[in-house]
Amino acid sequence: MTSEPSQQPGGKARRTAPDAPPVQVRAAAAVVGLEGLVGLGAAVVFGVASEGGLGDRIGEASYFVLLGGALVLCAVLLWRGRHGARTPSIVTQLLLVPFVYSQLAEGRLAIGVVALLLVVGTFLLLVSEPARRWSMGADERSRAE
Fold first, then answer.
1. 46: number of Cβ within 10 Å
2. pTM
3. What residues are paired with 13 via a beta bridge?
4. Radius of gyration of the chain (CA)
């Protein structure tokens, strides 16, 4: 996705802004960012309240910092219109399915149902037709023709 210089009145060249992602991608970016913030919050909780020793706490907290930070980064990149952040976001939604199942199986229905709606909704937003066309650059090519 490159932007080409355009001519302003007065002869000054300026760079055009890249096309914004579709609404579906922006909505998914917001949810992925929320998931990332929850992951970072979990890192704090595990770092402070874990039952293991110091090494266990640092390991668990580091794991969630890494995952939460990666999700926040994906959300920012999706919001800014970077196509490459779509695939890791889709994979993350698929990896959250076992978490949803475990919550439902353990009787935590409120957490399970909310997580299920967020995961399935975000997945569907990311694989929707406008998001797919955007990720392949088909919208930009059709506008150029």
1. 21
2. 0.77
3. 7
4. 19
